[in-house]
Each structure stands twice: as structure tokens, then as C-alpha cells.
Design brief:
- This protein is α+β, with helices and mostly antiparallel strands and 283 residues long.
- Helix content is 29%, strand content 8%.
- The protein contains 8 helices and 7 strands, in the order H-E-E-H-H-H-H-H-E-H-E-H-E-E-E.
- The protein has a 5-stranded mixed beta sheet.
- The longest helix is centred in the N-terminal third of the chain and has 15 residues.
- The structure holds zinc ion.
- The site of zinc ion (ZN) has 5 residues, from strand 4.
Length: 283
């Protein structure tokens, strides 16, 4: 780097030279600007719009030390916080690899899963990953409980968009009133988006996922309720959804209506019926 004419650098300056001065950085805010450029030979195909070229870099803690301290002296949540801050500053420039377990655990926690960012992948963490994969509507993620590049990219977008799993619904809205875990199959949420679109107004859920214990505590709830599988959502009859409208969005295979008013209370995606011939029942 060389002041006003950086492209004249011989390439032998920058961090090595800066670090050679060995100045004290303790209790000092160090601000680092990075400059990166690339050359390319223009071709006819670049006209009229130059193709996009992505370049970037990642900051990664070394295997044994981080900011001069042994890495093992940091608690996983601190590592996650550090990684998140570094990531927030730089991720727009670099997609980077999938980060530490504690980092994506913190992200799952951020969108509503009641897990700890402890860096340990146990059954709860696996369940959170699986239920996120199942709930994400913008693409069909493989539901394999593995955080690969696709799932991580989706999770990052979800966090960036305030926990939304679809244009208008958040993961948190799907949580059980019992144990607080959120779960909803993407097909339900996609159907709810279509309902919202034909009615032209926001749709608030009355009940979403129910953990088995909570479901058992509800008088009259079916023991094999679709809510236990995260495959059903209840809406208020005041929303004014007619059965014919619920059928017309071709997303639901089970539709529960209030006996008197005939208005829809319950929507599900049971596997025993089809969207063209849904089960309609009094609820
Ligand atoms: Zn229901």
C-alpha cells in the first residue's frame, strides 16, 4: 500500500511492515483498513454490463491462540460473540466457510430455538437444525441435521431478516406454548402466505407447534394432533377465512372449521390426504 497511489505498490508493504514497528496495542482500539483489487483483461462480453467478480478474505482465529490468549481460555459463548462481530463486519465481502458450532448455535438461539451455544452438538442442537431446515420456505433444504454451506447460508439470511422463515412469518411465531420450541413444516407456512395474499391482510396464528406434553394438557385436543408434528396452524375465526378459500390455495390437506359459522380455525398438511381433496372437518 502506498498512500495516494496504491496501485504503484511493489507488494512488499502492508501488515508485515506495520507489525515490524512493534508498537504497543494493549488497551488500544486498532482500526485496520484493507485494500484489495484485482486485474482483469476486458473482453467484448463485458459490454455493456461488467460481470460480477467476488473477492474477499476471512479473519480466522489461529488453532491455539486468539488475541494473544490461549483459545481454550475463552468460553464458547465468547468465541461465538467474537466470531459474530467479526463476521458481521466482513461477511458481505466474503462468504467464508461454515463457522464454529457455537457460532451457528448462537444463530439458532437468536431465531428462537431454546438451545445453548456451548459448542457441543447434542440431541437438542440436532433437533434445532432439523426443525430449522424443515421450516425454511425459501428453498427446500435437506432435513439432515447437518449445517453445511446451504443450511448455514439460509440460517445467516434468517438471522439477518429478523428470524423470518418466509416473507411474513418468523420462526418464533411457531413456538409451542408449552416448552417454547418452535416448529412448523415449510408447506404449512407457504400455505399461510397464500392465505394472507388472497385476504390481503396480516395473519396472526392462534396456535402453532405443540409439544406432546402441552398438547395433552389441552382439553379436547387429538392425541395424534398434526400440531405435534409441526404440521398444523390454528387461526382465529375472526380472520374470516372460508373453507372454499382455504381449499383454493391448494396448500392444505386438512381444514378444520367452526361448526356454526363454517369459518376456518385449523389448517394442516397431513400426509393422508391431498391438496386437491383435503379432509374438511368440524373443529
Ligand atoms: Zn388445530
Amino acid at each position: 500500500m502506498k498512500g495516494c497511489s496504491p496501485n504503484q505498490s511493489a507488494g512488499n508493504e502492508g501488515l508485515p511492515k506495520w507489525a515490524a514497528a512493534d508498537r504497543n496495542v494493549e488497551d488500544t482500539d486498532v482500526l485496520v483498513w484493507y485494500t484489495m483489487g484485482h486485474n482483469h483483461l476486458p473482453s467484448l462480453e463485458d459490454w455493456p454490463v461488467m460481470p460480477v467478480a467476488n473477492i474477499g478474505f476471512t479473519l480466522k482465529p489461529s488453532a491455539t491462540t486468539l488475541f494473544g490468549r490461549p483459545r481454550s481460555s475463552y468460553r464458547p459463548v465468547m468465541l461465538a460473540a467474537i466470531a459474530q462481530r467479526i463476521g458481521a463486519a466482513f461477511r458481505r465481502f466474503s462468504p467464508g466457510p461454515v463457522p464454529d458450532v457455537a457460532t451457528w448455535q448462537a444463530m439458532l438461539r437468536n431465531i428462537g430455538f431454546p438451545i445453548f451455544a456451548d459448542g457441543q452438538v447434542g440431541p437438542n442442537t440436532r433437533q434445532a437444525v432439523r426443525w430449522f431446515q424443515e421450516a425454511w420456505t425459501f428453498e427446500n433444504l435437506a432435513i439432515d441435521a447437518q449445517v453445511g454451506p446451504k443450511t448455514f447460508a439460509a440460517l445467516r439470511r434468517c438471522v439477518d431478516e429478523g428470524g423470518r422463515i418466509s416473507p411474513n412469518f418468523r420462526m418464533r411465531e411457531m413456538k409451542s406454548e408449552g416448552n417454547g420450541w418452535p416448529r412448523m413444516h415449510r408447506d404449512v407456512t407457504r400455505g399461510l402466505e397464500r392465505v394472507r395474499a388472497i385476504k390481503g391482510r396480516p395473519l396472526r396464528l392462534v396456535s402453532a407447534y405443540r409439544d406432546p406434553e402441552h398438547n395433552a394438557s389441552i382439553p379436547g385436543a387429538a392425541p395424534n394432533s398434526q400440531h405435534i408434528q409441526g404440521r398444523a396452524a390454528d387461526i382465529s375465526v375472526r380472520y374470516g377465512l372460508f373453507v372454499s378459500e382455504a381449499v383454493s390455495v391448494r396448500a392444505f390437506t386438512g381444514i378444520g372449521r367452526q361448526p356454526g359459522s363454517q369459518l376456518v380455525k385449523h389448517l394442516d398438511v397431513r400426509t393422508s390426504a391431498s391438496v386437491s381433496n383435503p379432509v374438511v372437518f368440524d373443529d
